[in-house]
């Protein structure tokens, strides 16, 4: 009688984490990159208060390692992220907060390494990795470096060295020890909340570089059937590169060494669990809590009311018998800020042919619906072929999506080939009122948001990668 086939072992690629999605909000989910830099400064202050309260509730205490007094200011390896980004921007001004060399390594690995068996786990040859480091240092910023003959395993080895040797850790000096402590929180939702707060608190360069890394790690896991690298493997291998601790000093007694080993094993398990969560829940973690956005709006409203009262106070004669109650009455709208027509917004699109339009909102109108009014309409274009519309010199038909302004004997010629329409990277922005600036989630219910911020301006802008 033939022996039964052996029972399969545990699936190494199985994800043993519950699924969570960002809670849908009628005002739209706010991603970290959606807010203006000034607003993010206020959000960080709120996140610090919230994290302190959360850690106090679970009696979590984390240390803050001392910063190195001297750091390298030149080169690639062992240089702070902030320094690398500053140098990149001096060479080629841009808004990118990820070092170009790190992005180049990730881009190469995404093209050549996702299907390589054991990527990240199998180390490259020491001699080749050493030569690759040398070539990057000497040739990359000279424009002389080529990835042509590089092995994915060698590049992955050097990429991990880059992360380990950062003089300011990727997870920052301030919070490097806070991340592993999250493992002691018993509830997964509370763990996610703490991780979300820590990511909000990271310096921008660290947060954006971490985001690029985590997207790459998720891409590796998506090819786990080819590269044999599931979430557990990836987390276990990458954790030491993000949570490197000081090397143990010699001369410890045996019992102390055992205790240190137990502590290190416990820490390794905790850091691996955190990396798993960072990779698996990255879409949830890179959001701004809706409660924080509401507090942000309240701050702006309170500050505007205070300025209005102070302005009114400065204009009043200072008399003891004066009834000061008038100072605290809500000021009437000024002539330059009239009450907007209920349910109608004017949308600006400075970079498009259709530069503005009035949009009537209803309970179903979303931000995506508003942007769609500025996209190419084949039916409208077909109906308009071969027609001309008389126009006074200098007039622009802002309510016609296919008109391109050309001076031809006082006419504006309809020419869809020259027109500029909204594309997939164009989004609606909420500007002013009770917020500085916010790129809107396409699912945002516009009538709800209009009632929350009736004095906002609405502008279509390009924002790649939302």
UniProtKB/TrEMBL annotation:
A Gene Ontology term for the protein's cellular component: cytoplasm
Pfam families: RhoGAP, Ubiquitin_RHG40_C
Alphabetic keyword roster: GTPase activation
GO terms, molecular function: GTPase activator activity
PROSITE patterns with a match to the protein in the record: RHOGAP
Keyword Transport among record annotations: no
Domain Rho-GAP stretches: 79-286
GO terms, biological process: regulation of actin filament polymerization; regulation of small GTPase mediated signal transduction; signal transduction
Protein name (record): Rho-GAP domain-containing protein
Organism expressing this protein natively: Elysia crispata (lettuce slug)
């Amino acid at each position: 009688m033939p022996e039964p086939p052996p029972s399969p072992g545990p699936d190494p690629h199985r994800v043993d984490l519950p699924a969570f999605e960002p809670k849908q909000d009628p005002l739209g989910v706010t991603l970290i990159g959606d807010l203006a830099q000034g607003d993010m400064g206020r959000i960080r202050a709120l996140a610090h208060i919230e994290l302190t309260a959360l850690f106090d509730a679970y009696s979590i205490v984390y240390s803050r390692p001392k910063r190195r007094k001297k750091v390298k200011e030149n080169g690639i390896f062992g240089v702070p992220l902030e320094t690398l980004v500053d140098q990149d921007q001096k060479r080629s001004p841009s808004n990118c907060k990820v070092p170009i060399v790190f992005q180049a390594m990730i881009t190469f690995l995404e093209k050549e390494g996702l299907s390589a068996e054991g990527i990240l786990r199998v180390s490259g040859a020491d001699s080749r990795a050493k030569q690759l480091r040398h070539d990057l240092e000497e040739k990359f910023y000279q424009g002389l470096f080529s990835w042509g003959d590089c092995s994915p395993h060698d590049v992955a080895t050097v990429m991990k060295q880059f992360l380990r040797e950062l003089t300011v850790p990727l997870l920052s000096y301030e919070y490097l020890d806070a991340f592993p402590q999250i493992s002691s929180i018993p509830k997964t939702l509370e763990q996610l909340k703490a991780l979300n707060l820590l990511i909000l608190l990271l310096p921008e360069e660290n947060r954006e570089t971490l985001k690029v890394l985590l997207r790459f790690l998720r891409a590796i896991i998506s090819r786990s059937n080819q590269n044999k690298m599931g979430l557990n493997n990836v987390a276990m291998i990458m954790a030491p590169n993000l949570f490197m601790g000081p090397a143990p000093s010699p001369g410890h007694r045996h019992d102390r060494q055992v205790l240190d080993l137990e502590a290190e094993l416990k820490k390794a398990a905790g850091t691996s669990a955190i990396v798993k969560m960072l990779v698996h829940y990255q879409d949830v973690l890179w959001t701004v809590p809706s409660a924080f956005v509401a507090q942000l709006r309240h701050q702006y409203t309170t500050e505007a009311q205070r300025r209005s009262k102070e302005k009114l106070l400065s204009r009043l004669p200072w008399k003891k018998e004066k009834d000061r109650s008038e100072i605290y009455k809500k000021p009437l709208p000024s002539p330059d800020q009239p009450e907007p027509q209920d349910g109608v917004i004017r949308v600006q699109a400075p970079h498009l042919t259709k530069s503005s339009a009035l949009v009537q909102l209803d309970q179903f109108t979303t931000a995506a619906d508003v942007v769609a009014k500025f996209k190419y309409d084949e039916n409208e274009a077909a109906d308009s072929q071969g027609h001309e519309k008389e126009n006074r010199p200098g007039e622009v038909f802002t309510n016609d999506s296919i008109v391109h302004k050309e001076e031809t004997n006082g006419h504006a010629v309809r020419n869809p080939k020259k027109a500029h329409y909204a594309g997939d990277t164009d989004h609606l922005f909420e500007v002013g009122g009770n917020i500085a600036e916010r790129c809107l989630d396409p699912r945002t219910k516009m009538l709800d948001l209009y009632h929350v911020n009736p004095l906002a301006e609405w502008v279509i802008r390009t924002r790649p990668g939302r």
